[in-house]
Amino acid sequence: MKEKNTRFRVVDILLILMMVLPLVAAIALKVCTPLIDAWLHNQPIPEVSDGISIAGAHIFLEIPMPIQNLVITEAQINAWLILITILGACLFFTHGLKEDKRDWRQMAAEWVVEKLDGLVESSMEELFRKSYAPFIGAILAYSACSSLMSLIGVFPPTSDVNVIAGWSILVFVLITKNKLKAGFGNYAKGFLEPIPVMLPMNILGEVATPISMTFRHFGNVMSGSVIATLIAWALQNLSRMVLGGLPGILGEIPFLQIGLPAVLSVYFDVFSGCIQAYIFAMLTMLNVSGAYPADAIAERLAKREAKKAKVA
Amino acid sequence: MLEIAIGIILGCCALGAGICMGIGAIGPGVGEGHAVANACEAIGRQPEAKGAVTSTMIMGCAISETTGIYALVIAILLIFVAPGMLVNTLTNAIKTLGV
Questions:
Q1: Mean pLDDT (whole number) for A165-192
Q2: How far apart are alpha carbons A57 and A74 in whole angstroms?
């Protein structure tokens, strides 16, 4: 086997930096938010308060646009940063792929791809297996990593409804595209079944899929962060109440806040985030796979064959 | 008068959030309990299928949790968003009507 040369190692280090630097940037952004705000809006730097607030994503900029202002928020910036991190991880794990090579990196990458293919294979129809595995993998990695971002103390993009609504709209487009495969007439006729009176109900049902996917994911992640914040606040007040009588710095020891928030974050951030990513991917697969009108297409093909036979 | 109106708005929002979450949590609770009970039964009957049953159960639990999550989203909107919006509407209406 050929020795790894210097160039290989330099590229490796650059890729590791590509993975780590966006996360560092996210933390730095979180820490410097008041400063950036003050610089952007020419305001004095606000004083640091220890009160706990529950708020949505912090808005950095509003760019005037014809229809609506384009708003640049913390969630968007963090989403782009996590995308760069995932891209770096992908490039790092696939760097120097070779046949017949026993390398832990290649093993890990192959394991991930194999598991993903297995997952897609077990829950999608034959037709979609090859083409949809990368998309499902992207959704899984993006969603799970975004939810896990709250572990390093920054705003997780999945806690903003707009981010997940974007993914849901993407899934909705895919569903509609698959439904249109049997022709527009067939698609439109589907709304009038079983009886034409059901038209409004069918339209509602069509729109309800992306909305329910959005709110399922968003609600789970956001409820976790809200509950964690409330419990941290309660524990802070409780430890102040217990130790408040002591003079000076002794009364400020946050002894109750050690331990319990960490246990809760294991459930709310790690478990809930990963489960929601899995469920989002699973529902995407089921919906897209279920939208494909296999019967109608088979009928069409049979008709075409019959026509050809007649002409001949 | 305005103070009383704002007080009523805030109180009703809090009450609505409580009722929404309280009633909305019944369904998912019962449903998930049912699912888990049946999964336990299935594992007891067929211990070798534990992995498949558990993953299906977690998936089903998370999906049946959705209605509870909707209630939670509504409750959080009622607590954090609705009061400000309603009070703004009220003050704007008073301004335009000139009462």
A1: 87
A2: 5
